[in-house]
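Changelog note: in this version the structure field was regenerated for every chain. One regenerated record is shown below for reference.
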Amino acid sequence: MNLKSNIFPIEIPFDDFQIQRIPWEEGKIEELREQHNQQYSFFKKDSYIYISPSKEDLPMLGQLSKIRVKDEASIVGSLIRHIFFRAFKERFPQIKPSFNPFTFPSTKDDHNLILNELPSNLKATITYKKLNELELKRSTIQGVKTFLLVIGSSYKWALRQNCQKLQDSGFDINTLEVANLVRYETSQDVVAPIFRTVGRVKKLEGNQALVETNQGDQFYLLKDLYLNKTYENIRLYLEFVVGSARAESILANVKQKEFQRNDPAILYSEISRLAGVLSQLEYKNGDGFCFTISRNSTTSFPSLSLDSPRYLFDVSFSKTDISPIKGLAQYGPYDYGKFFEVSSPKVLVVCHKTSSGAFTQFLGRLKDGFDESPTFTKGFLAMYRLHSINFHLVEVDSYDNSVFLNAIKKAVETHNENFDIAIIETRDEFKKKIPSEDSYWLSKAYLLQRGITVQYIKEPNVRSPKFTLDSCALQMYAKLGGTPWILPSSPNIAHELIVGVGSSLIRSNLYAGAQQHRMVGITTFFNADGKYIFSNRSREVAYEDYFKELLSSLKGSIDTISDEQGWNDGEIVRIIFHVFKPMKDLEVEVVGELVAQYPQYDIKFSFVSFGENHPFMIFDVDQKGLSSRYSNSVKGKFTPERGTNLLLEPGVCLLQLKGPADVKTDRQGFTGPLVIRVHPKSTFTDVTYIVQQVFRLTNISYRTFKPSQLPVSLLYASLITEQLNKLNTIDGWDSLFVKPLRNKKWFI
């Protein structure tokens, strides 16, 4: 591999420097910025205000202090941000960037993906532009602490008409979400204003709108409001101006262009080009502080050697394979004849009568196999070693919610035997409805309440199941309570428990000032071999009581597991917590309290957080791509092999989890690495062991035979949280309904 990145080193050519400073006092920094912001940079650190002039001949405003670069990262970082901003503005005075994070829109026409799709009267009104995003980071390269510039980008919508002009044109803004612009008072209009969502329009009165906000209903002048920059609002305005058919065509073309622009080769080329421009600017302040930005990206970080996992298909550790689907076909599922209890499942099938022919054919292929499928010729019965499978087919003559739901209720309530699982037809258009009006969620709520897991399938996939039968059968087996495979674990003197910690924040909206009212915790529990134990949901509590409730919920679950697994006094127990965001000290203290309640065990613990939304990218410029089985195109260009990793810091690792073979089509775009962070207060900090374990845990989601982008501990917590949030909007639903199903993967 020839690895490149979007990470560019910043070189500071000295070890120490002098900078002016004065003692901090309330209101002083605002006063200085108001008087001198055009010529000086001001920022606070501890009890001082630091001052850096933009030119050599400017008067002194403070006393000089000597600073060592390696000792004062925050002061150096602030200087770099301010000097970078000034250098950029001098070179590109026509662009208004944001300051921290530093972002600015591209000025190139081909980076406005909707420009050539619009009629001339809309070209200046609607844009879908590339937004360049630059972040300053600090890391260790070959043992030396180094500042880095990370270059990224995304595409953002803009509708450049205020609500007064929209209303005057006849476009109705009633019920739509709106925003206003917040400007920096001391920026002299060189910094882009902040776009802040304020609420939803309730009614219009003359040139004002009454807006429902988190501070109550408030009046705003229409000229001060803008439509929130969402795809849905853009679509509504486009339909108003050019009609529904033309709007749909425009947006489809824009989506196709976005696929093309997110090609990894194009991304890397554009990042390199921008780095070349930025590296040529002069970065120097009047007091002599200066730096340079490399035009060449770096991957000069340590790398961990990770083993590709094998899959285990029996408790004797003798039946393994490097491929889950080949091992399953040869050996059968891991729990065959031992733990799996539903060897003759009874299946309720509900479909529209116009699809019934396709469904009966699909069910036959599901049961006995399909010769045209490259991975499912054996069928559900043979592949999963089932004794039999019994289908009860129900046809409906309408997609109306009440018709669908009544048919399901009638079948469940009148059928002689209890169903183990249901297969229900669903359609793409159902997704446009809210859960309480969507037959998908209504039927799922009803069936889960009665202990019946559900497999949904779309009619096009029923008619053309060549590439979907294998994953459909895999999901069904897991939803029936089966364990298709696990991962062999090495002999270990420690009991090991992996806990995925998710949470759901319950608040009414995303407007400015929204309060974080209620919290619900979702925890999933796994053994070291990746075997799913169960999931648990804490009570819904006020935010300030969340950690106390989480502690209680975790203790109850660990008590159950320690009893079932026979933990003995004095034994080593390792508990590894997987969370979505870096843990704060308060959360660490909660787990410390938990550990203190088990003095009979020698407990070591790790807090491992994961980030998908981050600026880092890794490219393999030698990767020419692979042929796609779904089209004649080439997929995975410039994509590093799965398992590629960079250790940015001790305890901070970038891990690529989607390689060229894992990319479905060339339309999928670029998939970046996962950021894994081990909290410094962990008592178990073996980062090689932890990252290897994460890598293994992406291979057992049972949604598909492909690895997932998250370890299953967090993937399951995320799926459970997402589904319970939607089910909770349905009348009569209670999350206790899924408690009897907590050992089954009802949510995958």
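Spot check on this record: The two ends are 35 Å apart (CA to CA). Confidence is low (pLDDT under 50) at residues 507-516.
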